[in-house]
Amino acid sequence: MNDMVFDSKSRLKIGRLNRVLGDPATKGLTLIIPAVIFLLVFIIFPLILVLFLSVLTRGNYGEIVYRLNLNNYLRLLDPLYLRILIYSAWTAALTTIGTLLIGYPLAYYIARAPRRQRSFLIFLILIPFWTNFLIRIYAWIMILRTEGLLNSFLLAVGLIHTPLEILYTPLAVIIGMVYEFLPFMILPLYASLEKIEPSLFEAAADLGARPWKIFFRITLPLSLPGMIAGSILVFIPAMGMFVVPDLMGGAKTLLVGNLIKNQFLTARDWPFGAAASMVLLVITLIFTLIYTRRTGFGEELLV
Amino acid sequence: MADKVAIEFRQVKKLFGTIPAVDGVSLQIYEGEFFSLLGPSGCGKTTSLRLIAGFETPTGGQILIDNQPQQDLPPHKRLVNTVFQNYALFPHMTVFQNVAFGLEMERVPAEMKNQRVRTILDLVRLPGMEDRRPRQLSGGQQQRVALARALVKHPKVLLLDEPLGALDLKLRKAMQVELKTLQLQVGITFVYVTHDQEEALTMSDRIAVMNEGRVLQVGTPQEIYENPNSRFVADFIGETNFIPARVEQTDPHLIISTVNGELLTAERDNQSLQQGENAILSIRPEKIQLAPADETVSFEPPGQSRLMGQVIQAVYLGTDTRYLIDLSGGIQITARLQNINGTETRFRPGDAVQVLWDAHHARVLREESGFPGKSIIE
Amino acid sequence: MSEKRPIFLRIYAILAYFYLYLPILILMIFSFNTQKLNIHWEGFSLQWYAALFQDREVLLATRNTLVIALISTLIATSIGTLAALALQRYRFPGHQFADSSLYIAVIIPEVVMGIGLLVLFSQLKINLGITTITISHIAFSIPFVTLVVRARLHGFDRSIEEAAMDLGANGLKTFWRVTLPMIMPGVMAGALLAFTLSLDDYVITFFTAGPGSSTLPLRIYSMIRHAVTPEINALSTLWVVTVFMILSVGQLLQKRQIL
Q1: ipTM higher than 0.85?
Q2: Which residues of chain A lie closer than 8 angstroms to B81, CB-CB?
Q3: Residues 137-166 of B with CB under 8 A from A
Q4: Exposed site from A77, A267, B123, C250, fewest CB < 10 Å?
Q5: Does B53 touch chain A (CB under 8 A)?
Q6: pLDDT tens for residues A11-26?
Q7: Same structural domain for residues B289 and B208?
Q8: What is the mean pLDDT of residues C27-56?
Q9: Domains of chain A (ranges plus CATH)?
């Protein structure tokens, strides 16, 4: 990168800089130290603590017994907990598919809109999401409740005769999560679709391709990077979600996030919760690594 | 000409909002010819090409391909194919897949499809590149893939939108020759858009010079060069000198007077100039002869014209020497004399000279970039 | 160039936008409802807004939220900007490590970060409260600020700095008078992001808040859980409107190149 001019071995035209500031490598270190300290102390170190915690056990009175063992991890293999893990993955997958199906046509619409309209249309998508996400979830609760607005509407119109029970079911959780994660799918999809050169569509038409053929042979393949990016941005956080299941899913719907939270708060089995956290972390890391190995860290997503 | 008409424009208009990109264009392109649309940026040549391809629909008028009106035909149903300016190769497909794409749309059976692809890749001299991706190819190679992709479908007409623009000079010159040879080999009609008049002159059978959405003149390269019908065409093609003049007499000869009052005879042409009109005399630098002012030269009006002037600048250009001459009255002209006799410069700055030319080499044109609003078809 | 989009796509887009806005609009409309239960529309009333302003817990939570957001934004932006400069411009031992740490901080699930901090604070016997919340917010904001500012630095034209130095400015002066103003839009964007993240955060705050240190998101959560009145709607509406105004102003300033 030609940004990396200040390397302790490089020569600069402006010799004054070197003399005044000292060794550039030192300068770099000075600048980065605060951030690194913060991260080390408050993120990396805690993770190590959690790792350590996960191989200890909970004593009878809730205290921690300092005896190294892998009991917690073995406990996680219990079908009860495995089910939760699988269920979380399944929910995350459904959420991803949901956002993909709902978000793709919208992203396509905006990407093919006249240039001047595009940023405005994207802006329009983001406005509802500048509110606190708890607020949005509450709104959905209002809508999906048994006495909620959806049921009132359907009853009034006569489409149903008894209220639908949506809230506090897995369906409600999916609805809530899809809504929450929609922008995370739409934005990368849009970025990917927008990059496709218009002349490619013309060339395909010129060569005899009808509109649907163009979509399947040109548009879809070229938007694949966006689809993958969006999927990662949805799937990974969705796996660790606990707020939506907590508020909209009722007692029956437990995801990994809920499990962890419960262990730390209600059940007070910190070591077990720590183990679950580690598992979640590892799964997250694996998926992220797979993605970045393929496409590199998406700094362009920031734009 | 008795040749069949491949493409015809009938009073075609195209408006973008209120701006006329194409403003009443009528022309005929014959089968098998290399036809160029030439003009500066924004003159409507690319829009015209896109109208043929079907990416734009005319606001008025009609386009016919092979005598069929193309009115509502979408691009994928037209029998023409385009080579795009930026090649528009599909980045996610290999060279082979790119070229095969059009044939797949036609549902050509696999055997034949493969064979046709290979043949065309040989024809454009890209053998062995089949499995590469576009981004692994050089500009010139990408250009050939774009060509192959369009040609493999055996279209009636090939449309090329400034395909050589992105190439460096040497490669461009080489490709011009290749394209021309290819066209002759394959035998289909080429409609070629360019802003480079030298390119058009090199490759075309006929050229349509366009400006501001209208066709000013259509003709062979010689016709356009030697017989420009308007100031714009004379100016746009090659180099020329413009000498302001006034029409003194139109019958039986065309006589004009220059700014310093000198009278010249010029060729009668079909511009229907009136007496008293302001005009300009266009004479190309290579058509001018110079002689020392005090030398007696055989000078016979009305067949020959002569003006007196003084050399301001002499630039040696290898093949010829270019002289900048001042013709009093604020008019300067350029003369090019071939360096047949070696390196000595015959005239020096300050020399008084006679400027001579054959009257039939000069053109008298309307002062405004006058175009009559309809095309002049040869 | 005519970009044709089929009719069904247009209809779909309209429906999609409607779907995106529906929850918020309903929320806002019902904040003016006289009825308590948010089921039917009874009449127009501002009573819930009044109740809101008298709700001490909400007011306290609001104050906390803003204080935490402001402090954490300030600190995180400063640290993050310096880090971005360091990473983008200098080679030093540990460059890769710093890069990786920031990366991990971004991808780590919120729950995991939350409990990590909880474990840390409990081991260090630090009481949970506003301070711990603020520290946590700084911790998760730094990587995002760094990311944003780094993206901005990417296309930075170094020759302008060199010109300044050529004209006699030393390193520090160059930074203050040339570099910083030029990257200011990126820094502002990073600050805005940090502010939003802090304002909005529930999960991590949940784990690092102690009794008596409530933030707005925490308050909203318990209101949803326990005391469901249209007061929440009123609160939500105010929140939406405020955020909207702030960001619109931000957009306007950006358009006029002030930011």
Answers
A1: no
A2: 206-207
A3: 149-150, 153
A4: A77
A5: yes
A6: 444 455 555 456 777 7
A7: no
A8: 74
A9: 1-54 (no CATH), 72-302 (1.10.3720.10)
